[in-house]
Amino acid sequence: MLSRFQNWLFTPVDNAGLVAFRVLYGLILAAEAFGALATGWVTKIFVKTEFTIGFIDFQWLADLLHGPIMYLYYAILGVLGLMIAFGYKYRLATLGFFVMWWAVYLSQKSHYNNHYYLMVVLTGLMFFIDCNRFFSIDSKQGKVEKSNQSPRWNYFIIIALLLIVYTYASINKIYPDWLEGRTIPFWFKDKADYLIIGPVLQNETVQWCVIYGGILFDGLIIPALIWKRTRWLAVAASIFFHIFNSIVFQIGVFPYMMIATLVLFLRPEDIRKRIFKKSEAGIKPRDFSVNKPVFWTIMVFLLINIILPVRHHFIKGDVFYTEEGHRMSWRMMLRSKRGNGRLKIVDLKTNKDIIYPIKNHLRPHQYKALITQPDMVYSMVQKMKTHLAKDGYDSVAIYWGVTMSLNRGSFHEIIPDTVNLAKVEWNHFRHNEWILSPPKKP
After folding, report:
1. What are the DSSP calls for 247-313, one per residue?
2. I want to staple 437 with a disulfide (CB 3.0 to 4.6 A). Which of 118, 147, 318, 354 is the partner?
């Protein structure tokens, strides 16, 4: 059985779908980078901020990727995206974008979005995939051997990743607040002034269709795209679903990135016939023998991506409040949070309070994100310790009591104001006991 599966993965197949995806995906990466510059997003997040808050242990990277240099940084990302699209120095371009985007991802949490992480993983995968064997500058210049075939695993690995993403997106919606309609109605209420669709979104029937339709779509879309009998219906449903999300939720390039993946499910022969009519023909077929190291690398990669999204089940506490295990878990569009904080800093040498105008150091979007995410509170405390030490306060106690409301419900204490956060250590793999969850309902 395993041997047959290995042989199937290394069977030569037409690579027209991969090439089409490379072109679309590269253009989307370029649009993400240049769009961030054009809309002022880079200015808001990286330039007009005193500092950005990065992942724990990566604050040094957040300090490095900050200020006007980020205009050049994002311009380079945009150029790398175009290089991927046109297949110019493809391996270098994908590696460059992967490293630079991974650094951006780790350097700021205030605007965390699942599609940022998906772009990291997809771009990393594409470095290993034959997407530039034709219809590329590399192939025209003879930098790579021209071919209209790739091993089947090139398709399989991306489709398997998409199956993981969509499946967890569906499973994660099966929780009380989503099923009982405590999220979508609030979000749609804020969009009542949208032209034409605003009033439609206030309709209760439409809201329930979105609530349960979202679960069904995420859970069924990949199998429906794979099965020939439902493929075109699934393509139409996917385009509608993602365009709807783009218009209503305005979540950047993510919907269009997912639409671009549809070419991987279409018959490569049809793509070649309709899009690449003048592409190289008559190329000698390639023979792909089973490569066991590659096979087991694929299996390990998929296993890691299956395990990561469930890790919060093995961590004490409610992930909606603690945020431990939330990221990289495809927990998309599940909740809205509000928080309040009470900050107190004491100079341990004099036992006197120190005034620290926290909101003077943060932009509104940073404070809003920080006050509902304990790991960001911890990161901010480390930043405050550095600032205070420079001002001569090298021995301080920092108490930051935080209460939070999930989906506009009651406020609950998630960080007690009795914990000296300046002394606690962050545990990456176990629950941090100073982060609280609300008592479970009887």
Report:
1. HHH--TTHHHHHHHGGGGTS-HHHHHHHT-TTS--SPPPP-----HHHHHHHHHHHHHHHHGGGGGG
2. 318
